[in-house]
Amino acid sequence: MIKVLFFARLREQLSTDSLQVEASENLTVDHIRQQLAAKNELWAKVMTADSLLVAVNQEVTDWSQPLKDGDEIAFFPPVTGG
After folding, report:
1. Is the whole model's pTM more than 0.85, yes or no?
2. Chain centre distance of CA 59
3. Which of 64, 72, 74, 75 is deepest in the core (most CB within 10 A)?
4. Which run of H or of E encompasses 23?
5. What count of other Cβ atoms lies within 10 Å of the Cβ of residue 72?
6. Digit-coded pLDDT (tens) for 28-70
7. How far apart are the first and last CA of the chain?
8. What 8-state DSSP symbol labels residue 39?
């Protein structure tokens, strides 16, 4: 299984902080994003936003990152500091 986490406003918009996805061969971050976007219009809007960022196992990565069983993906909006 792959643990998927949602942070900040994504968590609020989707009304969930995490979910589990079945691992499979040749799975990438983008495959997961597409699966989630296919859930409904709200999920599609959130998961296809140009500003969406992603980390795998707590390291920021890109959409082509391969995944394996036991990985943790985190989706989050851009962060600003002050």
Report:
1. yes
2. 13
3. 75
4. none
5. 14
6. 999 999 999 999 999 999 999 999 999 999 999 999 999 999 9
7. 37
8. S
